[in-house]
Amino acid sequence: MRILFIGDSIIRGTVGVDWVNDLANAFPEWQITNQGVNGDTLVKINQRLEAIFQKGGSYDYIVFNGGANDLLIPHLPSKGFLFKTAHQHLIKQGYAPRRSMREFEEAYSQTVDLIRSYTNARIIILTVGRMNEMPSFHLNEKREEVNEVIRKIARRDQCMVADAGKRMDEYLGNKETKDYFLENFFRVSWLDRWQCALFKRADSLSEERGLLLTIDGLHLNSIGGAIFRDEVEKYLRRVLKEQIYPGSSLARNSS
Questions:
Q1: pLDDT per residue over 61-82, tens digit each?
Q2: 72, 116, 193, 214: which has the fewest Cβ within 10 Å?
Q3: What predicted TM-score, i.e. pTM, was given to this entire model?
Q4: How far apart are CA 153 and CA 185, in angstroms?
Q5: Cα distance between residue 56 and residue 119, in whole Å
Q6: CA distance 177 to 192
Q7: All domains of the chain, ordered by start, with CATH?
Q8: Would you say the C-alpha torsion 24, 28, 30, 33 has a positive or negative sign?
């Protein structure tokens, strides 16, 4: 199977854990291409996706994750001068977030329509993970609205939903965690990335900060990464069973 992963830093995996690479290592017979880019909004992801198809990219499955940065970017100015400067830079560079639910639904629907206009690939869309592990954090209310839009689009357009956002919420439940969300500009923009890439410190960063699924309230540690990986893997495994046992109840009932 040829599988394209497209999206933001959760797909890219250079901050936190690279769960897409873990999936590729577990299934070397699959041809997995990672086209995640840190910080990308829906607008930027759609631009890159169209460029990939115009260059002749062909895939059996496309796994799409986006929307977190559309929520995050408008929040950046409230976090201080350096984050505000980063916000201004992103806007100038065309990382325009979709602010209303109507705009978000239109942009997300455009992604699905774009894929369908170029390919017959099956589409797996991921819901947005927890933003700050505390459920009371104000972005999580809007995140759940976004995830409801994602589920609605999936039902309407017959996509598969890898509901990692819901699984993260269920895992955290009433567990004790910390109110921590991208607390230091230099850690967010540089230091955490290099500690994860060079020294594989995602889990130790989580432990130091009292977090359970993320290293900074957004990017995933090994447990959070496993949630995303497992949600996608169950659909890909189903395809393998369909290929081995076409039309059987075993294939239909797998999850």
A1: 999 999 999 999 999 999 999 9
A2: 116
A3: 0.93
A4: 34
A5: 10
A6: 19
A7: 2-172+222-253 (3.40.50.1110)
A8: positive
